[in-house]
Amino acid sequence: MSGYQRVLLKLSGEVFGGGRVGVDPDVVQKVAAEIAEVQRAGVQVAVVTGGGNFFRGAELQQRGMERARADYMGMLGIVMNCLALQDFLEKEGVETRVQSAITMGQVAEPYIPRRAIRHLEKGRVVIFGAGMGLPYFSTDTVAAQRALESKCEVVLVAKNGVDGVYTADPRLDPTAVKLDHVTYDDAIAQGLRIMDQTAFALCGENRLPMVVFGMEPEGSILRVVRGERIGTLVSADEADQPEDEEKR
C-alpha cells in the first residue's frame, strides 16, 4: 500500500470527551497535534467527527424524545467538537476551515464541496460539521459521503480501545481474531460492526477503501497515511489484500 495524498479522517465523539460528557481539552490538543503532523507531511486532510460525547439521537429517542429533534441536537454537539478541534489545530499553526451542513454563518462556512476541495488544495484542514444536516443519518455515512464528494483516496477510521476489525468485540470475547483485510461484502454479511452498513455499502459501491486502526500509540495517523500496514484494510475486492501480510 503506498502513501495517500488526500484522506478523510473519521473521529468518534468519544475521542473528544476522553470518556466523559463534553470536551477534554488535553485530549483534543493531542489529536490536533497528530493531525498537524500529517498536514505538515504534505497530506491533505479532511475530518468528520461524531457527537456522542454530547448527544446520541438514538439514545435520546429511547428515553422518549422525538428522533429527528434528538438527531438535530446531536448535530449541534458535532459542531462544538469541530470548533474545539479547529481551535487547537490553529494553535498548532494549521489553517483550518469548519464547514457545517446546518447554516450557522457566525462560526462556520456552509458545506460547499468545491470550496472544501479548494481549501484542501491550499493545505488547509477541512472539518465537516453538523453531520449530513438531516436526521436518521449517522456520522459514519457522512464520512463516506464527504470523502467521496471531496475526492479523498481513503477513509481512515480512528478507534479508541481497539486497533482494527475483529471477528467479534475483543473487549467482550477473548476468542475474537483481528482481521488484516476484509471486503465490504464480507463485513456486511458477517455483521461486523465497525461502521454502519449504509457507510459500508456506499464505500463498497464506489470502491473507496477504508483503514480501521487504533489511536494508540501516538503517531498512528501519520503511519497509516504513509502506507504502513497497521489496523485493518476494508476494500471492495479480495484482490486489494496486501501481499505481505506478515509485515502488519
List keywords for this structure.
single chain; 248 residues; alpha/beta; nine-stranded mixed sheet; 9 helices; 11 strands; 38% helix; disordered C terminus
Question: How would you describe what is shown here?
Answer:
- The structure is a single chain.
- By secondary structure, this protein is α/β, with parallel strands linked by helices.
- The chain is built from nine helices and eleven strands.
- The strands form two sheets. The protein has a nine-stranded mixed β-sheet, sandwiched between helices. Strands 7-8 form a two-stranded antiparallel ribbon.
- Helix 2 crosses helix 4 and helix 6 packs parallel to helix 8.
- The C terminus is likely disordered.
Spatial strand order of the main sheet: 4-3-5-2-1-6-10-11-9
Described by the principal axes of the CA atoms, the overall outline is: globular
Largest sheet: 9 strands, mixed
- With helices defined by DSSP (H or I, 4 residues minimum), what is the helix count? 9
DSSP strand tally: 11
GO cellular component, one term: cytoplasm
GO molecular function, one term: ATP binding
Catalytic activity: UMP + ATP = UDP + ADP
Keywords: ATP-binding, Cytoplasm, Kinase, Nucleotide-binding, Pyrimidine biosynthesis, Transferase
